[in-house]
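Workshop exercise sheet. Pairs work together: one partner reads the sequence aloud, the other fills in the structure field after running the prediction. Swap roles for the next sheet.
Pair: D.N. / O.F.
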Amino acid sequence: MRLSLPLAGLLLVLAAPSLLLAQAPAADPVASTGRSDPSFSQPSLAPGVDYTLPSESEIKAVLDRIREHFERSTPYTIIDVETGAPITDFSKPRKNAGIDTRKGEFIDWTYSMGVVLSGMVQVTEVTGDARFAAYTEKNFDFIFQHLPHFRAQAKEFGPQKNGYRRLIDMHELDDCGAIGAALVRAQARKKDPRYREGIDLVVEHITKRQPRLPDGTLCRPRPQPVSLWIDDAYMSIPFLAQMGAATGEQKWFDDAARQVIGMSARLFHEDAGLYDHSWFENALPVDPKFFWGRGAGWMLMSMADLLSVMPENHPDRAKVLEQYRRAVAGVGAVQGGTGLWHQLLDRTDSYLETSASAMFTFAIARGVNRGWLSTAWAPVAQTGWQAVARRVRSDGQIEGICVGTTAAYDAVYYYNRPTDLGAMQGYGATLMAGAEVMTMLRTFDVEKKLNTFHWRVKKPVAKP
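Structure field:
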């Protein structure tokens, strides 16, 4: 007997229900009973909402869990990438030698690990806990200890994927800018000539090899011949800013400001107050616009990094500050009801995404702490942090981080990008957000009144 096609399909589903279940979206990890300040007479206890004031010790405990996850997971070993066997003899290059990335990119030279390594340094600066910055230094020491071997490997066999290809053979800003910024921060703490060599390689690529538009804005040759990605704000601006801080030379701040201004002119949507993910020259005059959360996060973090070290009298500081405030206003208006932001910022049916939420929390808290924003913005960072913190598991891994995302042309792509515990793009931003909210707690007083939180400038202590 021949089954009809609909009946055959039904029997297939009944016989293999896992096929159907595999297509169901994962439950939101924050869907649990809410928490509210016990002093509030009308508590906010909606599922997934944490409407309380964190303590420094609570934030530090979250950051410690993340650090311990990285310390536990990072394999400082070189292996045979075909067999997995450890390699200890580096007397001659071997094509199959590579860093051990079986657990993830922990010891690799990547932009996402660059954000982690910068975040670790920031946590040490805020908390005084040297274990965070020690992780950064240990990683860089391992990289530069083994770089000569991998250079010899590349010379004989060509650059290999697990042989620090991105460092040895830089092709784009992803290969150098974010981790280059972390290296400059590490160099400020530990003067190591090997670090200086790595910094010089990044300088060479960004200043001489990366494509630019006629006005000096950094661009890419993909996926369209002339493309701007908002991601490249963080792949360039923090490095340029850190170089300015390290050298005192204005040219670095000039170039960093040029990127803010040039990228914003093409990617910031005035009516929405949000950043488009990408701009394609060959798509003009009508370029598709998608307000991807992490893209806007990259730019907001970049402007916060730049403003933190840019001289007060720099001729472009006012422009950068004005753009930062406009961008903050835009993302502040679309924060979700749990404290998190959506994958597509203006589309509330897209999922709540962690990395963008951590980035916005950091950038807004930094603005409150440095006086670029009023304390009226502090609760936005407070609730953002509490929501992000709930996504940090007991083992230090973080839920809800969107995986790597290219510049795409359709909403379906962005809606359906998966999240993954191994997506590093949100870990560094979470470290930075926690450290900055800790600083905010130290800097201001908080009054609990009318079932909400009012952040106030600390009153001077009266002298006896």
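Discussion prompt: The longest strand covers residues 444-449. What would you look at next?
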